[in-house]
Design brief:
The protein is mainly α. The chain has eight helices and no strands.
Length: 158
């Protein structure tokens, strides 16, 4: 995308926005994080944030709507931040859809079956890779282009 140059503040906030879907990917990675303690240590700050947001009622919903109204639908915010905010929201919506699907599959196959653990790990790793890619690109001041999600995000904020 050829959009205006971004300043360091927009780059920082653009990267921080991706903590929202990254934190809420942790339930999918429980099996992976317990099998690899060094990986759990790497994600321990996110685990603390997840614990804090789960202790507050409706925290994820408040963050979702706060991000939606304060960033994505606010024309005073730069296009760069609005794009990153919308993309983070779309990643989170995909996580919600995947959790609904897993809610159907887990009773059918069991919590520790090969199918459910593989799907959970794939969802977790896909979210982590996508978010870290977008964080890295945001720090560079560039747009993290994720297939389909970026197009949907761009069409929502024009």
């Amino acid at each position: 995308m050829n959009k205006p140059e971004t300043d360091s503040k927009d780059r920082s906030f653009g990267a921080l926005i991706y903590l929202f879907p990254l934190v809420y990917s942790l339930p999918f990675g429980i099996a992976l994080l317990t099998q690899f303690p060094w990986l759990y240590q790497f994600f321990s700050p996110l685990v603390a944030i997840y614990g804090l947001t789960n202790s507050l009622p409706f925290a994820s919903l408040i963050i979702f709507f706060g991000l939606w109204f304060a960033v994505v639908r606010n024309d005073n915010v730069s296009y760069f931040l609005r794009f990153n905010g919308m993309q983070a929201i779309l990643i989170n919506i995909l996580q919600v859809l995947f959790s609904l699907i897993m809610g159907i599959l887990i009773p059918a196959f069991g919590v520790q079956s090969l199918i459910t653990e593989t799907l959970n790990n794939t969802i977790f790793m896909g979210t982590v890779v996508g978010c870290f890619y977008c964080i890295f690109r945001s720090i560079q001041g560039q747009y993290g282009e994720l297939p389909v999600i970026s197009e949907a995000a761009s069409s929502q904020i024009r």
